[in-house]
Amino acid sequence: MLLVSSLLAAGSIVLIAVFVLASGLPLIQRVGAWSFLTGKVWSPATGEYGALTMIVGSVVVALAALSLGGGLGLGCAIYLAEFAPKRLAGTVRQAVQLLAGIPSVVYGFYGLSVLVPVIRGLGGGPGHSALAGGIVLSVMILPTVVSVAEDAISAVPDEYRAGALALGATRWQTMSRVLLPAARSGIVAAMVLGSGRAIGETMAVIMVTGNVVRLPGSIFDPVRTLTANIALEMAYAAGEHRQALFAIAIVLFGFVMLLNLLARLAGGRRGVGR
Amino acid sequence: MTSMTRGLLAAALIGGLLLTATGCPRQEERQAEPTPGQPALAGDITVAGSTAVHPIAQVLAERFSELHPQVRINVQAGGSSAGIRAAREGGADIGMSSRPLKAEEKGLYEVTIAWDGIVPIVHPANPVKDITLVQFREIFVGRLTNWSQLGGPDRAILVVTREEGSGTRGAFEDMVMDDEPITDRAIVQNHNGGIRTTVAGDPNAIGYLSMGALTPEVAVLNVDGVAPSVQAIRDGQFAINRPFLFLTARAPEGVTAAFIEFVLSAEGQAIIAEEGYIPIN
User: What are phi and psi of A169, to 5 degrees?
Assistant: First the structure.
């Protein structure tokens, strides 16, 4: 019984991967992998398929999310693991995990009604922007970043703390010179998993980034991400266009696998905590 | 009891439940057979054509088949021109068109089943109240880019559009864009709510909605001096309008006539209004 369920669980990823590859590869072969990845024109009506604007869009939004949410999440993790009184830590931890339970369409609606007008006021432009996507995502990745990073810091053996304190280090020195370096690989993994989450998010991003297929000139410009493009066009895509959307999915697959590999590498290296 | 047999038992129970569940409506259907003395309507018809009319025809056909279980209606999408041709050449019992017939296409039996209108929307604080159809197009092509060109403040126009493939965008392109592409600077939203929220939140934005999707949070612009209203769309005064037509080669009879009658009935027209289009009366 248990074996069957684990085989089914593992098998589904194989099935999805095979299906996506089989559906998308023909188009990549026809267009050429290089021109698919570096083409700036995406125009299904005329049969031109270049994904560069959307790859850039996804990367910019994910980086914005990570630079905003990564630091915040790490600070929160440090506090929870080392400084917070037990009762308070429990409450904060639950509050952060609760963020994971909010449907993404709610994040998107909040972003569209509140963030977008604020950003329009600050930066001119339409307000629908990579920045708006980054801010919304920075909150959405917090549960992932905080829980993985906190685990990593908590997993550092107590001897390290005791040793550092015994040598006369302050709590802050212990944290910055001993615990964080020891937990480094786990913290890197937290950031990588967080960006994976950011790359994959769709609904909230569609609502706030404007979905314009152009290379952004600044963080205040609208962008279209890879996931948004699939969701926007799948309902109507047929034939070659449909294959092109699966080709986009292959690119996404590549991104997520690369990120997971990075996380594994970081976690596998000598160090404490995964 | 081993876990295996317990699993089998559970599966059998669930299976049994499903069987009884699917069995029930069948009995109800049997009770809904026609009253004696009135021959049951039976037969298959094909309805083909406009991709814009297709979704509502589908809903209407489903409802009609519920009322007359022995009727099957096959609804196919293929575009207005294909629908007109199918009606003329007998490829379909009813052809669907979302545009008026051209002179050389006349000679078919035409029934208008609904009207569709697209209206330009802006922020309520926008001082511009009136544009021409040509200006509306120029804005979406990207040649008119500042509200001062339309008598408004010196601010860049933010163009908001639906995603490629959406029915509303298709209707907008058919009736307004005249084969020119929508600017690639336009913000894309994938539902009417997104268009409304974006336009309602930005004093510089302009978008478009189906008449049926309007709400008071956005302001509507007059086009060529005519305020959009259900009446102005029906009688053709408002420029961005189109009829949804059912076409037959000759005066309809049998199942075809009964279906058209149903579409024009209060119930059929209520379904059309529910789908966001304008009933004929």
Answer: -70, 145
Please check whether residue A4 touches B, CB under 8 A. no
- For residues A73-89, one letter each, b for 16 or more C-beta atoms within 10 angstroms of the residue's C-beta and e for the rest, the string is bbebbbebbbebeeeeb
Token code pair at residue A159 = 């001897």
Chain-chain contact of B166 with A236 (C-beta, under 8 angstroms): yes
Q: Are strands B205-210 and B158-162 parallel, antiparallel or unpaired?
A: parallel
Please report the number of interchain residue pairs, chain A to chain B, with beta-carbon separation below 8 angstroms: 59
pLDDT tens for each residue of B156-195: 999 999 988 777 888 899 889 988 999 988 999 988 888 9
A224: chain B residues, CB-CB within 8 Å: 188
**8 A C-beta contact, residue B51 and residue B77:** yes
**Which residues in chain A come in under a pLDDT of 70?**
267-274
Contact of B241 with B116, CB cutoff 8 Å: yes
Residues of A in contact with B201 (CB under 8 A): 112-113, 116-117, 120, 127
pTM of the model: 0.74
Residues in chain A within 8 Å Cβ distance of B158: 126
* Chain segment B50-75, per-residue pLDDT in tens: 888 888 999 999 999 999 999 999 99
ipTM score for this prediction: 0.76
Q: Which residue has the tokens 């996404």?
A: A252
Residues of chain B contacting A212 with CB distance shorter than 8 Å: 184-188
Distances (CA, A) of A270 to A47, A184, A267, B64, B248: 49, 10, 8, 70, 78
Q: Whose CA is closest to B121, among B229, B200, B234?
A: B200
Q: Does A132 touch chain B (CB under 8 A)?
A: no
Question: What are the distances in angstroms from CA A265 to CA A193, A269, B115?
Answer: 12, 6, 61
